[in-house]
Amino acid sequence: MELKLLNDQGQAAFNVVAPDAIFGRDYNEALIHQIVVAYQANARSGNRKQKDREEVHHTTKKPWRQKGTGRARAGMSSSPLWRGGGRIFPNSPDENFSHKVNKKMYRAGLCSILSQLAREGRLLVVENFSVEAPKTKLLSQKLKTMGLDSVLVITDNLEENLLLASRNLPGFLVCELRNADPVSLVFYKKILITKLALAKIEEILA
Fold first, then answer.
1. Nearest CA to 155 among 183, 131, 120, 121?
2. What is the C-alpha separation between 84 and 77, in angstroms, rounded?
3. For residue 63, what pLDDT is reported?
4. pLDDT number for residue 81
5. What is the rounded distance in angstroms from the CA atom of residue 189 to the CA atom of residue 142?
6. pLDDT, position 46
7. Of 169, 132, 137, 134, residue with least CA distance to 153
């Protein structure tokens, strides 16, 4: 598999050879779906809290007598059938949404995503990606020159100027290789990766 190496003008200078063991995998849609769903589920926090009929603040007085009114019998207003009553099966803060994914499956899923990105021409390589000053305008001009609008930049070492310049720029995300996640890889139209980060990917996923 060969990946395009872009220059500062967004033109393909030459190709970089990438191992087929990582960037030449078949597209496994079921596995990719599983790791994306698991990543999003593991980011959820169980902070929902609902009250059952014991916890709601209601009087325990019987609303009306048992017989003779023509209405359905009722014991107390905290019943789940009543408006403002407690929930039958309330959500609790200790609810666990996590999904378990084995390391082998996670790595195979990442390889499948990277392979599909390479086949679609969405995975590009740059020698280095940086800005001279922490200015959003400079970064915006650089992306406009390279013809990029929705891009994820994966670097081996995150520079402070690039991080500060990108915080207020929509459609752009920069991260180190260890922080790259499958959701971002699928979401952005283009993935820019530095040559050093590419070499680290080959060491990790080989």
1. 131
2. 8
3. 93
4. 92
5. 17
6. 80
7. 169
The residue ranges of every structural domain in the chain are: 2-44+100-205, 56-96
Rounded mean pLDDT of 117-122? 92
Cβ-proximal residues to 88 (8 Å cutoff; 6+ apart), any chain: 52, 80
- Which residue has 């009553």 as its token pair? 85
Q: Which of 108, 107, 199 is nearest to 157 (CA)?
A: 199
Note the Cα 150 to chain centre separation in Å: 15
Please name the amino acid found at residue 18.
Answer: A
Q: Which residue has the tokens 């081996």?
A: 156
Q: Is the Cβ–Cβ distance between 114 and 185 less than 8 Å?
A: yes
CATH 3.40.1370.10 correct for 2-44+100-205: yes
Question: Distance from CA of residue 162 to its chain's centroid?
Answer: 21
